[in-house]
């Protein structure tokens, strides 16, 4: 499948005549990939595909990933990496397939072609048993927390521990209360999810995602439906917990440093929280790199998007 | 449409495999779902079976039989009509409409709230933990409720006889002359499989709901329609097979 995708794009390159020869010995930078099948080169003119190095190994890597739902092509040859031990952002305008990326990482969706690697292992190729095992590496915070409506807050947060560990009730209680206190919900342990506000549900989902001490934590639009102050506080909480987890991982000499990935279109939180930014548009990365370099990018699209201005290449269509 | 039918077949296969392959974490959910569906269904089923038994094969057939002065044959007719067809039908329709829709709505709402995705990410297989217990509970319950529906369906026939001022002795005589054990187990097996169809359709529709609250409503609606169609189609195949393999039950005895 992947070879097909390559050759199709190779054809497009040849027909529009702009591509550099693949066997060039003079030009050392990789040739600019052609647009996906059925798209004009014009649509992808702001995609510089530049990736500023992070200097870290990749926790997650998308390789030429394509994914369509019926006639809507969501991922169109996505190449993207989340460096280990950093807080990465996948930033992009609404409806560009950011949440779809997350579902690919945990194997809830499979790519039509291409590959998704987690710590170097291909997710689409994993047999079911291995996939269930691999998912324990992940903590995932869903948009609305995705708490189980039939359980109270404590049981929700304790659920992964009861499911996957042999820990006794006392130990579970201790871990759960530590996490609930961390997210500021220690007093609400007996409340049911429908008695909580949106922000509280998100924080509870965060606590639940943390209890198994995952290597990779994914946040699906943590700022949706929150006011700016709560968003800022949540951002701070994310940073604080990331710092703690890094220290703990170093102390315990774990194989992988904890990687956080926040999917959002909120530029303010990106500026505050991100170490590494991937800008996603039309199913591909426009440009990616450490936050400082991205904020100083010359690319007009990136500049417009990161400053949130109405003037620039990105329009309502 | 064909794709959906294929997916439901696939879900059936995966459910059966999950049900028999260890571990078996679905015990308490099975009991919970069984009791939940029983609580929801017992009263609607009671009312519908008596009313339906009294009206359709009861009053209408009695009016017809009175023409020939053969009201005593109503008992025999109830074996054909109520035990073989109407009671299983009413049973399945009530179960699909009451318990099936509740399952679709519940799973659909959980799908929309991303609870099902969360379960999977937390390493819990939704088929084993949610579909299997509902599947088993609904099969068992529909099968058991069939006997309940038979009893109250025949009670409808008794009412119709009484309303016609006829003695009950001949009713029971023709009833037991015609009743065979094949009728009873055929009816129970059939409804157990109806339960399986209802559970698969309703779980599938719930778990694939999309598009917010409206999507859940749509899923419930489609689940009922597809479950009814599935029941009708399966009933046709089952009745034909049963009559063909057991020709003795086609003979009507005085």
Structure description:
The complex is a heterodimer of chains A (317) and B (254). With 317 residues, chain A is of the alpha/beta class. Chain A has two domains: 1-45, no CATH class; 46-137 and 214-307, P-loop containing nucleotide triphosphate hydrolases (Rossmann fold, 3-Layer(aba) Sandwich), CATH 3.40.50.300. Chain A has ten helices and eleven strands. In chain A, the strands form two sheets. Chain A has a seven-stranded mixed sheet, sandwiched between helices. In chain A, strand 2 (58-69) and strand 3 (72-83) form a beta hairpin. Mean pLDDT of chain A is 83; it is low at 1-24. Chain B is mostly helical. Chain B has one domain. Helices cover 85% and strands 0% of the residues of chain B. Chain B has eight helices and no strands. In chain B, helix 1 packs across helix 5 (126-163). Chain B is elongated.
Helices and strands in order:
The complex is a heterodimer of chains A (317) and B (254).
Chain A: H1 2-16, E1 50-51, E2 58-69, E3 72-83, E4 87-91, H2 98-105, E5 113-118, E6 121-122, H3 128-135, E7 138-141, H4 153-164, H5 169-182, H6 198-210, E8 216-220, H7 228-251, E9 259-264, H8 267-273, E10 276-281, E11 284-290, H9 291-295, H10 300-307
Parallel strand pairs in A: 1-11, 4-9, 4-10, 7-8, 8-9
Antiparallel strand pairs in A: 2-3, 2-5, 5-6, 10-11
Helix pairs in contact in A: 4-5, 4-6, 5-6, 7-8
Chain B: H1 2-20, H2 27-67, H3 74-112, H4 115-121, H5 126-163, H6 168-178, H7 181-207, H8 212-245
Brief descriptors of the model:
heterodimer, A: 317 residues, alpha/beta, Rossmann fold, four-stranded antiparallel beta sheet, 10 helices, 11 strands, 21% strand, disordered N terminus, B: 254 residues, mainly alpha, 0% strand, elongated
